[in-house]
Amino acid sequence: MKHKAILVSIIAFFAIVLVLNTVIATCDVADVDECDVCDVEFVGIDDVVANDISLKVGSRTPAGEVSDTIPVEVEFTANCDVSDVRVKVYIEGYKDEISDSTSRFRVVEGSSYIKRFSLELPSNLDLDEDPEDLVLYVRVSSKGEDSIEEPYPITMQRDL
Fold first, then answer.
1. Residue numbers of the domain that contains 26
2. Beta pairing, strands 63-65 & 98-101
3. Are residues 26 and 58 in the same domain?
4. Ramachandran angles phi, psi of 52, nearest 5°
C-alpha cells in the first residue's frame, strides 16, 4: 500500500511539472510580445544622415544655412514585430517646431528600414548667434512600446 501512495505522488508531481512547463511556454510565445519578454527596445537606430553626413560617427557635426531644406535619413532595424510605428525628426527651440514624420507603418523583426525626411531650417530672424548649435532629435514610437529618442548635434549659420 505504501508503494502505491509513493507511486501516485511521483506521477502527480511529474504531471504538475509538465502542465506548468506547457503553460509557461504558451505564455512566452503566444500571449507576450517578444520585446516585452526580452526587455529590449523594439527598434535600434543604426544611423542618421543629415546633409549627407553620418551623425553616428560622433566627431562630425553637419552644418546648414538658414532657410535651407536639409535631407535627413534615418536607418533602423526592428528587434521584433511591431505595428503602428512612426518615425519623427525635429528641432525644438524656435517659434514653430521644425519637424517631419512618417505615417504609421509596421516593422518585422530582423528587417532594416530607411526613412527619408526634409527639414526646412528657420530664417535669419530666428537665429540668436552665428553659428548656432542646435539639436536634431530622432524619435521612433509605437503604441504600447517605449519610444526611442536620440539627440544629434547640428550647426546652423547665416549666409553671407
1. 2-31
2. unpaired
3. no
4. 65, 20
